[in-house]
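Task: complex structure prediction.
Instruction: return structure tokens for all chains below.
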Amino acid sequence: MSPLEACRWLEGTRGSIALHESIWVYPIVESVHVLTLCLFLGLTVMIDLRLLGAGLLETPVSKVIRRLGPWMLAGFAVMVVSGALLFYAVPVKTYLNIFFRLKMTFLLMAGLNVAVFHFTTSRTMPRWDLDRKPPLRVRLAGGVSLLLWAAVAVCGRMIAYNWFDKIPTALPR
Amino acid sequence: MKATWLSNRCAALAAAIAVLLWASPGLAHHAFSAEFDANKPVHLEGVVTKVEFINPHAWIHIDVDGTDGKVSSWMIEAGSPNVLLRRGFTKNTVVPGTRVVVDGYQAKDGSLRANGRDIRLPDGRKLFLGSSGTGAPYDEKK
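Output:
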């Protein structure tokens, strides 16, 4: 089963039909997705600015992450669930959308950046925890994170448009 | 005392959520002008081949007979199911095989897609197709 066939199958399931034909649930899920994005991205920006040495400089990096991290993760969790529901509602059009594919690529890259920071870079944190200007690798992690998450958010917004859509020829009657 | 403060906070939160929920379906999903061209009005007479009554925008597919005998398949974008239902437009208002007349605006990229303004049904009913607040020409005239 190709990914496109899988999306076609998904689109025909009862839950997907209920969602994409819904009067209220779809706009509510859409709103929740954007509101939790505010929570997640807002706090991510603050953590990234600390890593860059551009903000919250009087507070140790570890403390910024410990205080903001749980709220950021809570926002992330609800954002992922609501985003998955939006995909579940309209799988075929979304899968074929160029901005969705770009968004998933940036999302993967942002995830890798977090993983690298979490599993390697942050191990030496005691050495630069109090630095107003952390080492280059740390600042790089913060800067890359800012750029990638901004790209994810912009691409997410662009999914609403049908530019470069392949739908007219790709969908059977 | 604390209970009152808490219930006030809860009431404020509930009010905020209510406002957001009330406002969100009315928000334009995307702007008309980014995708469609107000200077490319189209008048299409054709047979409905498929109706996608879906969020965030419904799509009506129609086959239009050209003057040269060639059939072109158009996709007409309409408002959300919520907006359409409030105007009395249900999933079964237009079924495949129905002959309709659609007025709208073509996509800027020249593809056979259009933002629908009105649709005329065989029984003479004329329904407004668009979403409100997108900046489409019919919004401004109102």
